Amino acid sequence: MGKVNNDITAFNDEVQNIVYQLQSRGEPIQHLMVNLFKGYEAGADKEFISYICMKKYKYNEGGSIDAEKLMSYAENQYMEMIRNKEWTTPQKDNQEILALTA
Q1: What percent of the chain is modeled with pLDDT above 90?
Q2: d(CA 82, CA 17)
């Protein structure tokens, strides 16, 4: 997430590129949902992370959500928060600490 400066759209694009590359080589895509949740939870905005945690709970309880839906939900939430000026990113010092702990 730090690589794309906490931009959910860019993160989703990066994930889709990786998935496409794996599929084109015939590689299996394992643990995509787990890694998507980890990626989103490494984000900067606490409200967004809470939103993702709710989706994760539903997924863990057997909810019908796949990677495409999760990426769409995350991007919609991100865009809504940007539009409403609710999206926050950490200061540069905090970003370095987050990167080190991740």
Answers
A1: 67
A2: 24
